[in-house]
Structures are given as C-alpha cells and as structure tokens.
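Notes to self after the call with IL:
- keep both proteins in one doc
- input above output, always
- annotate only the second one for now

Protein 1:
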Amino acid sequence: EKAKLNINSLLELIEFNSGLFHSSKGGQIGSYGYLEDYSSLILAMLAMHEATLDLEWLAKAEKIADTLVSSFWDSHETRLYDTPEDGDDLIIRPSESYDNATPSGSSMTAEALFKLSLITNKSEYFNIFISLMKSTAIIASEHPVSFGNWLCVYDSYIYPTIEIAIIADDPKHALKMRDCLYESYIPNHIFCGNAYFSYTEKARNKWDTYPLLNDREPKTDIAMAYLCENYVCELPVSSTTELLQLIRQKTKVS
C-alpha cells in the first residue's frame, strides 16, 4: 500500500508539473527528469502490476513509456539520451550506456521496453529494444564488468521467456495463485494478470488488448492461470499445485 501511495503521489506531481522531475521537496521541483527516472518508474509500475494484478498499472506504465520514447529516443541516430529533448540547455546532450554502481538509464530502458513489448506485443517497444541491444553488443562483450545490467537484459532476451497470465473475478483468488509463484525461482518469466475481470469487462478498459489476457475468462470464484510461450498457451489450470507443476516441467527447475 505504501508503494502504491508513493507512486500515485509521484504521478500527481507529474500531472501538476506537466512532466517528471528529478527531485522535489516541499513543493519545490528540481531539474527535469532524466532517462533513469523514467525507466525506473516504468519498472516500478510493472512490479506494482505483479503485486496487485491491477491493469491500471500496465496502462500507466505504457503512458510513461510513450513519454520516454518521445522525449529521449532519437530514431535517426537510434540512440537514447540521458536528458529530455525539451530539458535543460546543455552544451552536449549526454548519452551514457555504461552500468556503474547503479544500472544506466539505457539498460533500464531496454529492460522496461522488453518487458512491455512482451506484455503488449507492441512492435515500437520491441524495435527500440533491439536497436539498443545491437548498439551495445560489441562493447558489452569487450567490457562485461561495465555492463552488468545489460548482460542480464541480454540473458532475458536470448533464452526463452515463460509467460504467465492469471485471471479472476476476485483479487483474493488471483493473489493466492500469484503468491505460489514466489515459492520457487522461475527464470526468464513475464507476469500479466487481471484480478478484477468483471469490473474491467464492464469498464472496457482495454484488458483485451493484452495478448495474454484476450479471449480468456475466469470461472466463478476461481482464478485461472495460463502458462504460455510466444503467446501459445497450455490448457488453463485452476490450482496452485497444477500451475507449479507446469512451470517445473517447462523450466526443469524443482
């Protein structure tokens, strides 16, 4: 709940100030938000979606991602800049790919866009992700110590990704199914869910635009889970035991 409160407070500041700023205190804002601020926020929203299975967080993550692309991505040079296009006037607009004590804004953006591309199947996110991977492939292989987070992103892309979708009318049932996923390590997975199916069906909030959720409905008072790869799914299961068994068979992890 505190994480939700913090992110919503940040979104209110973004709305009020017409943009994300790097810092604020006592109503006073600092410099314009950097690439790492936007990419971190997207990853936080994706984590909130996993925690709540509320589609609201996916919609918000997409909105911030679209702003990131329009403000930081140069399609002609196929590169990301660390400062926004309409940000502070600088002699040289910085563009840093190296990961240091913390991941670079570029590597976090690649991670965020890759995850969003799997959830939304939007080609724009995926194409930018591929361009970023190509631009760092050689230098990352030559200096791996300086590209720690990049290497994690490469690993996620190279090896097959398991897609998990959970759908329910009641969050209580959906979150119980979700909790079992944290009982063991699941390599290279993406997680998407809708714990409020009846509400979203009436509200028509575009839940059906997410490939892992489209045309899938829960049974009454039962959460349904789907294990997929490249959007091709196994038959749905309704128990945590069955879901974990499917995951173990797919990943060969006990």
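Protein 2 (the one to annotate):
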Amino acid sequence: MNFFHVHIGLRTFKTGLTVMLVMLVYHFIDRPAFVPALAAVFALRENWDNTMAFAKVRVISNVVGGGLAIIYYLIRQYTHNADWVSIILVPLLIMLGIIIHNKLDQSVGIVGGMAAFLMIALTIPMDATIDYVFLRVLDVFVGVLFAMVVNRFAMPDEIKKVEVAAEKVETDVKKAVHKIDSKHHQD
C-alpha cells in the first residue's frame, strides 16, 4: 500500500493491528496496555516462521526478565523501598540477566529480556503487591501471544507471497523503464 509515496508493508500493518487489539482487550478488562502492547511490538516479525522462532526467544527472555523483576520487587520490599536499592540493584540485575542469557546461549534475547525487566521493575508503584509484578510478567506473555496470533491468522503467508511477487514486478518494471530511458538519452 502506498500512501504519500511511503510504503506501508504487511509487517507495519500487522504491528498496528496487534497493538490495536491489545489496547481494545485491555480497555475492556480495565488494565493498562503499555506493557503488552510494547511486548507485542517486540515480538511481531515479518512472517509466521520468524515470529515462532522469535517467540521462543521472547519466552526465554520474558522468563529471565520477569524473574529478575520479581527478585527486584522482593528485595525492594525487604528494604522498605529504599532509594539506594534501585540505584544499585537494577544495574546488577541487568548484568545478571545478560550473564543468564549468554549461559542459556540466548544472547539474541538480551535486549527483549532486559526491556521486560526494566518495563516491569521501573514501573512498580511503591504500594504495589507481588500480584502487580506477576500481572506485568503475564502482560508481557499476553503481548507476545497477540503478536503470534495476528501474525498467524490476520495475514496468511500467501498474501505476503503475492505482495513480494508484486514488489518484484514493480522493481523489474522500474529497471526496464530506467534501461529504456538510459538508452534513449544515449541516442
């Protein structure tokens, strides 16, 4: 789709659709959609196979990031929300998360896992309960699930194949026109 000479591809459309669906569902359950919407954007890939491969990485990275957020919350509660805890503990837990990802041979999941950790840990209200933290971890998984479902059912791979074929034809036509123009200007 071309809009003001800007290419709006399938992945762009599916990402917008996924965020809209997350926001719609979270509106009806009266919960903030920030975490699942962002997780969905991170998880959605250009096709079903890549989304599934990346979903495995996202699950591992979300477990690591969510687990670290729970550890952070428990230590913060134990220290009565002392300011120094965040300043010292967040960077240490980031380093631990990177080490865990590397040990699991999942370095590709470091950014997503640490983003999940930071999204959860740095948005925990002072009066939050452990339920809040578990719900945020669940929100990340919900966002990934939405991305998987939309990528699987909203726009099947066959449509993508047609789009790729159409883009190839467009490119070939442009090359042919350019070749004709170049030859015409030489004469």
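Annotation: Residues 90 and 184 are 65 Å apart (CA to CA). The two ends are 36 Å apart (CA to CA).
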